[in-house]
Amino acid sequence: MLAAGRSERLSGITKGSSKALLPLGGVPLVERAVRTLRDAGAERVVVVVGYQSAEVGNAARLAGSDVEVVEAPGWEAGNAASLAAAERLLAGEPSFLLLCGDHAFSRNALVPLAEAPGPAVLIDDHPTHDAWEEGTRVTVEDDRITAFGKALPDPAIDCGAFRLDGRVFDAYRAAAAAGDHSLAGAVTAMGRVAPIRAVPLPSESWWQDIDTPDDLRLAKQRLRLSLGKPTDGPVSRYLNRPISTRITMALSPARIPPAAFSLFTAVVGLWAAWSLSASRAVVGGIFVQLASILDGVDGETARLQWRTSERGALLDDLLDRMVDAVIVAGLALWLWDDPSRGFRTTVLLITAIAWPIIHLLVKKPFQVFEVPPSAGRRPLLVTLGMRDVRLLIVTGLCLVDRPWIALGAGLLAYVGSVLRRIPFMLMRVGRGIAERFRPLAVLLPRSMRGNAPAGAALPDDPRDAADRDLRVVGQEPEQEHGGDGLGAS
Question: Alpha helices, DSSP H only, in 15-163?
């Protein structure tokens, strides 16, 4: 990864610091680039530094102490001169990915490039006008790149990501002899002796070259929009995420642990339940929806800063179940005939402690009821049973002072969520039985194996059919860190 430059066009933001140290989503660009390379499958990461080499090298090592850092003495000549400094460290490598450190990518954008069979360049064949004006354009003929240049008329531009091999160093020396120390010049010279494949940017991915303040704003916007999940429900997609992702991006420079957001959201949920138990309908309803919105911040922060973990997912799952349970308890206490403060405290406290424990105990035995996540269209019953929709319904009914209806709607959604899991459970049980007895099928006469004609092969694994049925019946998305378990209220 090349992180040697100074970037004078961003000096108003960097205040003279290296652009590689500029935070994006709370993560310095150099660290973000290292982690992006590892996501693409890179086994080693070598970072070439120049300007403020010590600071940039330390920031790169935030992604892991095993990051190799090399200083380029001639970095001011051009980015290909910076690449030349890594030749010794790359000796013997059959190929390597090359990334410009001032380019931001979505997490899986580099995977097709990493899987290319030979030298290749990641290209954007539908860039925006501004990106095309600023970018290095490429000429593509029969999926091969034949030229790079700022003045080419071609519509595609390179994304600052390459798969190369040792021949690029000889190509750089040839280009440098003619006075060209740019990476485009070196890769163009390499293309004269080795075909370079054009790899289009995946349609669901994004990238951004960060050279100006406008580029930085656009990168932040694209990064924020990427924090949603394809399995989000309608309320999360159109209401919760637009708010929670802005909160996440605003707080990202503080590098607050995701678990802290999970605990804070649980406190908001407890406050909502306490308000409902005291018949404070408006405050309780508002805090129910606020807890639903804030529930996305912990997972967004974890994905934004590569801080996901099984422990964090489990904590978020248990706290979600606790919040669901205490909200239902708060609604029930609202309907109670003037319960005392001590009684309300006791009920909510017991619920908050007991329900996560119960959920933890039954989670594994009841995994057979879990529904696979889906990003497609869902039946109405599935949509109404989703957590974001349930909490919005409860919020709306609380705001109009209808506790009976709110409690009934929540319970109805819960019961419907349980009932719709039964077909999945039966299919999974049947799949397990079929798998257990499948070896015995070869002992049966062919006429008893079904209606297949003589000479036909045995049917495929019964799991294939079961999986097809799963997609037909309908599926529910997973929660922010874990599945919507049977214990959800």
Answer: 29-39, 53-60, 79-84, 87-90, 111-114, 129-134
